[in-house]
Records
---
Amino acid sequence: MPRIFFALDLPEKIKDNLVQLQLKIPHTSSAVKLVERGNLHLTLLFCGEVTDEALQQMLLQAQAAARAFSCFTVSIGGVGVFPSPSRPRVFWAGVREGGEQLTRLAAALSRAVGIVPGNPFSPHLTLGRVRQGKRASSGSFLEQKDFFAGIFTADRFFCLESTLTKHGPVYTKVREFMLAGQVPEK
């Protein structure tokens, strides 16, 4: 069964800036697994393994959810860690503008496809994860609070399939969903 999630892709320039930010994560090659540049995205909803039949139904419902939302502006900036600075497990970049719209879109998508997420939605971009059984320090990473990656227009999201390999996940776009409405002025 395919592992499915819904996410926004990012402009190349923002990915470039996020890769530069990843260099600020205090890590050794064995403690933190950085998200590869091509896999950087903004997750809306992780669905897990679904049957092909369920996936087809989810795609129809996701299309309806997309049509109910207008395009909006997203600004990527700031940093943080989950669950705490003293014991980070995930290093992330934040969403400065557009977080409220992302939260509403994620909730609508969740309702539409019938998947209740395990944790409340928190708009962020995962940069790296501490490997199982390892420890890392948030160190100087949290000093990057003024970090700014850029602004983009959220006018679409994707359904992606995640295939786990020994080298890390490989994401394949299953379908693109265009949001309704006009592109906001900048």
Note: The first helix runs from residue 12 to 22.
---
Amino acid sequence: GGSDVVFGYHVTVTDPTQFLITDAHILGTPDVVGTGNVKVVETWTPTFSTAKIRVYDIEPGGLTQLQDSIVFSDPVASLTVTKDIQASILDGQPGNASITSIDQTYSQTPTGGGGIPEPASLGLLALGSLGLLARRRR
């Protein structure tokens, strides 16, 4: 028999004027003993064409993928995630299909607008200001 669960959640940056989500990574431990499969497939809204990331173990055949990642074509401030987890063993056959962990991460990068300037930029700004003040006094 088999099991299937589909659930969703939201991923949002805390300050969309400063950061955007650029990529997703998944790492899992699917394991099949016998004839069957375990799959974890993830998709998003907004949709990035037919983009998916997945981990799986399919037996027989030894088709195994323990990690996957994607860089989104357009960085976004928030995503609605759909995760589909399936596990099954061929009816009447001995075996076990399981997944003990799924590690999910998303990366965010600065948008380049506003923010707190880095120390070197602040130092150059101060030196430039001092130069202007010294020139003005002459």
Note: The radius of gyration is 24 Å.
